[in-house]
Design goal:
- The protein is α+β, with helices and mostly antiparallel strands and about 475 residues long.
- The chain contains eleven helices and 21 strands.
């Protein structure tokens, strides 16, 4: 065997395509995907994808078109935009019957620096679970986009706001650590993502970030997120609309332990395939080098935030929800169980609050329903954590502090769903020595239902001697409710 012939056979063996081997195009595509996504060998993957294009173009166009699309991705991963545009042209010319794939590829190669169209619909909710040094913590990041009109009631919507206030979005960011909760809401223009301005009568208003936290002492677990992840200038949402590409750089106004926003550079350093509980995503790797934060933004579809990393802390996408109205789901549930939805209000962050009325009575219960992802093995612990959070709440007047009645605690499975209920006693009384408000014994009855995708909390607050009868009437109805 000549040395030249030996070299050819050796290379063929490395690529897994020895002469006469009976590999089909599907196998070749999978090998290419493995090299591209798992091994990080882009050049090796290109060899396989070209073989698929050459061998399957006449016999299996969808497979060949997929390989051609992967070639576009490979060139972008190499940072060669010109080559990516050439592969895109080949996709358009050779596979015109694959418009969806062509459109996906076009979105990977933006034509200008202008913001791309918003990738979310009229409502989107996303949850990323947090790990610290590789270990799950039960903490999470939560993002949502709601149309402004979905988060106000009819009376507010009919108030004399100027019409320019209506085409707006409410952006919500939330961080839940083991010991604190932080959130930011901001109302922005749909197109520009800039804070909304509106006029009422003769006064001019500009929306401001609405901050909320229960952290009075400075939770150190929040420190890694002091940057774009918590930025009031909606940087995370803005990144999803930037014309990202390998080598792309820009500066954004970012609040990071500063009195006001400062311009901070971001750079797209590569493309990577990222596997998360929510699925596998081709992502742009976006870095803020000055603060040591890295974001992986999906390159296709809704372009979600897939992963975040800062030092030993990372968050990865576990669930996204679409724009379906949770209020409609709640109404259907309570009516099927034999009650009536009294009122309901959608709030940012996938939350619905309101009340239900029991038929043939004047009794009401309030509820709070939220889209939240919890794995089956974590639901029981999650319910106990909800109870602890309620008991740990403290008030200015300590007589209002809740105390668990231990014998009332019940954990059970109802209709395949886990339920926790409890009676929490407290006393009402005067806030100052000058008030003559009588001291009364009160009880809060709380009933939680949790599935893998929703958490519902029902509660009723009454004088202590009224609770037994109320509970006797309520529990059969609550027990008939099945959440999605």
């Amino acid at each position: 065997m000549t040395s030249k012939h030996f070299a050819v056979v050796a290379m063929a063996a490395v690529l897994g395509v020895l002469p006469g081997s009976a590999q089909n195009a599907s196998d070749l595509l999978q090998k290419g995907l493995h090299l591209q996504e798992a091994a990080g060998d882009v050049d090796g993957a290109i060899v396989f994808f070209r073989q698929v294009v050459n061998s399957a173009s006449a016999t299996n166009k969808p497979l060949a078109a997929q390989a051609q699309y992967q070639l576009v991705l490979c060139m972008l991963q190499k940072g060669d935009r010109a080559a990516a545009e050439k592969e895109l042209a080949a996709l358009e010319n050779n596979f015109p019957s694959m418009p969806d794939l062509i459109e996906k590829a076009k979105k990977l190669i933006p034509g200008s620096a202008a913001l791309l169209a918003a990738p979310w619909g009229d409502g989107e909710y996303a949850q990323l679970n947090i790990k610290r040094d590789g270990a799950a913590t039960g903490e999470y990041l939560y993002y949502s986009v709601d149309p402004w009109t979905a988060t106000v009631n009819d009376q507010e919507a009919k108030y004399d706001w100027n019409s320019q206030f209506l085409p707006a979005l409410v952006l919500h960011w939330e961080l839940k650590t083991r010991s604190s909760r932080h959130s930011i809401n901001l109302t922005v223009d749909r197109d520009t993502l800039r804070p909304v301005e509106w006029t009422r009568v003769r006064d001019h208003y500009v929306s401001r970030p609405n901050y909320a936290t229960d952290d009075a002492l400075g939770d150190p677990l929040v420190t890694p997120f002091n940057g774009p992840a918590t930025d009031a200038e909606v940087t995370v949402f803005l990144m999803r609309r930037l014309p990202l590409a390998v080598g792309f750089k820009t500066t954004l106004p970012v609040s990071s332990n500063t009195p006001g926003p400062v311009q901070m550079e971001l750079a797209v350093t590569g493309m990577e395939s990222v596997q998360t509980p929510a699925g596998k995503f081709n992502c742009y790797k976006v870095q803020f080098a000055s603060i040591g934060q890295t974001f992986w933004i999906g390159a296709e579809g809704a372009r979600p935030l897939v992963k975040f990393q800062s030092g030993g802390v990372e968050a990865e996408l576990v669930k996204t929800w679409g724009p379906e109205n949770p209020l409609a789901a709640m109404q259907a549930m309570v009516e099927k169980a034999g009650a009536t939805l009294g009122f309901g209000v959608r709030q940012p962050g996938g939350v619905v609050t309101g009340s239900i009325r029991f038929h043939d009575t004047n009794w009401w219960m309030t509820f709070k329903m939220r889209k939240i992802h919890t794995s089956a093995g974590e639901i029981a612990e999650g319910l106990q954590r909800r109870l602890k959070e309620r008991i740990d709440e403290r008030h200015l007047n300590p007589t209002y502090d809740l105390k668990l009645r231990p014998e009332s605690l019940q954990t059970k499975a109802v209709g395949g769903q886990q339920v926790l209920s409890a009676l929490l006693d407290y006393r009402t009384g005067p806030l100052t020595a000058k008030e003559d408000t009588p001291v009364q014994d009160e009880t809060l009855y709380v009933y939680w239902i949790q599935s893998g995708e929703f958490l519902v909390e029902f509660q009723d607050d009454r004088q202590r001697d009224e609770i037994p009868t109320q509970r006797w009437r309520m529990e059969p109805v609550l027990g008939a409710i099945r959440i999605p």
